[in-house]
From TrEMBL:
<dbReference type="InterPro" id="IPR019387">
    <property type="entry name" value="SAYSvFN_dom"/>
</dbReference>
<keyword id="KW-0472">Membrane</keyword>
<keyword id="KW-0812">Transmembrane</keyword>
<feature type="region of interest" description="Disordered">
    <location>
        <begin position="22"/>
        <end position="51"/>
    </location>
</feature>
<dbReference type="InterPro" id="IPR039159">
    <property type="entry name" value="SAYSD1"/>
</dbReference>
<keyword id="KW-1133">Transmembrane helix</keyword>
<dbReference type="Pfam" id="PF10260">
    <property type="entry name" value="SAYSvFN"/>
</dbReference>
<feature type="compositionally biased region" description="Low complexity">
    <location>
        <begin position="30"/>
        <end position="50"/>
    </location>
</feature>
<protein>
    <submittedName>
        <fullName>SAYSvFN domain-containing protein</fullName>
    </submittedName>
</protein>
<feature type="transmembrane region" description="Helical">
    <location>
        <begin position="107"/>
        <end position="123"/>
    </location>
</feature>
<feature type="domain" description="SAYSvFN">
    <location>
        <begin position="91"/>
        <end position="159"/>
    </location>
</feature>
<feature type="transmembrane region" description="Helical">
    <location>
        <begin position="84"/>
        <end position="101"/>
    </location>
</feature>
């Protein structure tokens, strides 16, 4: 059984490598590269030396299959149609879990993990739209800033003007 799994894995890697080399790998997912000092250079997509496709595409396929499951569709329909019932159910389940973990003296661990899950659940769920800029200029092509974004130079000049003595 183990050898058949290994054979399937080798076949999968060969087909992925052939698709990658023929240019059907879905494009480069990175928009920035790192130089030798570990800092990021903006807006460049340097050559990749990967002989195999990135794991991001594999995880994207797994996520897509999970996303299309019947359970997930029912869950999203329930969550969208009855938001207060959904929130009440989540709160009740969370409180029961907290009571259970507190009884075995793991309440603080449960709370800390719950905070991490809450943060993860409230991150962006859709991929970034084409042309949408990031709030962090280092992730944008040519390090473009958002309109109205304050820079260190602007802050410094405003600070110096405020403290400068008024001239008559």
């Amino acid at each position: 059984a183990m050898q058949s799994v290994q054979q399937q894995l080798e076949e999968y890697r060969r087909t992925r490598k052939a698709a990658f080399e023929s240019g059907k790998h879905g494009g480069d997912l990175t928009n920035s590269t790192t130089n030798g000092r570990g800092s990021t250079t903006c807006g460049t997509s340097g050559p990749t030396n990967n002989a195999e496709p990135s794991r991001a595409s594999l995880f994207a396929k797994i996520y897509q299959q999970l996303d299309d499951s019947q359970f997930i569709r029912r869950y999203r329909t329930f969550r969208a149609s009855r938001p207060w019932s959904y929130r009440a159910a989540v709160l009740i389940i969370w409180l029961c879990g907290l009571k259970l973990f507190a009884s075995v003296e793991f309440g603080s661990v449960y709370f800390a993990l719950s905070v991490l899950v809450f943060i993860y659940a409230n991150l962006r769920s859709e991929p970034k739209k084409r042309g949408e800029v990031s709030a962090y200029s280092v992730f944008n092509p040519n390090c473009e800033r958002l309109p109205g974004q304050m820079t260190a130079e602007q802050f410094e000049s405003e600070l110096l003007r405020r403290n400068a003595p008024k001239r008559s």
